[in-house]
Amino acid sequence: MKRLILSLCMIFTAQRTYAQTLEKMSWFNEPEKWEVKNNSLSMTVTPQSDYWRISHYGFTVDDAPFYYTTYGGEFEAKVKISGQYKARFDQMGLMLRTDKENYIKAGIEFVNGKYNLSTVVTHGTSDWSVITLDKTPSEVWIKAIRRLDAVEIFYSFDDKKYTMMRNAHLQDNTPVTVGLMAACPDGNGFTAVFEHFKVKHLPDQRRLKWLENNK
């Protein structure tokens, strides 16, 4: 009985800590309607909102919802996403950001009735890469691994097999905000749900090499 009580207490504490972590995150461009419940964030995405800088379209916008925490050093971030996409360019996923001119956003973007694995990398100006999906997944896992001066972006349909979709530069030794982003550039908003968001610390590779060489 004591073991059972102890196990239940440990499970409760872990769930409570996880939920508190999500609840203690911060908003940039907080949407009008959102909720954190059972380790997930749901939001009604702000209409006519996006992140983009200059290239191709000629405008700069920085006004979509972003729910974030701040990390230094190297880490792995992962989240399960599902959205009720409606309009062209409806999108959601992970974002890593050092400032308004330097960020990476990656996830699903809905374009012309198709689901696209989408990554936007911005350093002064934005670029956009897509992988169009033949099927319509009910949910997608997006994972970002920050190592040294680069971020590797992966996707999965089952949280088991991950495939790389982009490798991009991001300044190292600089604090980064990482979290959950959704945008609706061309529509009236949609419901976005983020589940099981987790950031895991990774030991600094340069430090590990130094320790290995200086035993």
Brief summary:
With 215 residues, the chain is mainly beta.
Which descriptors would you attach to this protein?
single chain, 215 residues, mainly beta, Jelly Rolls, 7-stranded antiparallel beta sheet, 2 helices, 16 strands, 53% strand, disordered N terminus
The succession of helices and strands, N to C, reads: HEEEEEEEEEEEEEEEEH
Give me the side-by-side strand order of the main sheet: 1-6-15-8-9-10-11
Number of helices: 2
For the record, the count of structural domains works out to 1
Globally, the shape reads globular
Largest sheet: 7 strands, antiparallel
SS class: mainly beta
Question: Please, could you describe this protein's structure?
Answer:
Keywords: Signal. One of its GO terms (molecular function) is hydrolase activity, hydrolyzing O-glycosyl compounds. Residues 1-19 form the signal peptide. The structure is a single chain. With 215 residues, the protein is mainly beta. The chain has a single domain (2-204), classed as Jelly Rolls (Sandwich). The chain is 14% helix and 53% strand. Mean pLDDT is 91; it is low at 1-20.
Topology:
Elements: H1 2-23, E1 26-28, E2 33-37, E3 40-44, E4 51-53, E5 60-62, E6 66-71, E7 74-83, E8 90-99, E9 102-111, E10 114-123, E11 125-132, E12 140-147, E13 150-156, E14 163-169, E15 176-183, E16 191-202, H2 205-213
Antiparallel strand pairs: 1-6, 2-3, 3-16, 4-5, 6-15, 7-12, 7-16, 8-9, 8-15, 9-10, 10-11, 12-13, 13-14
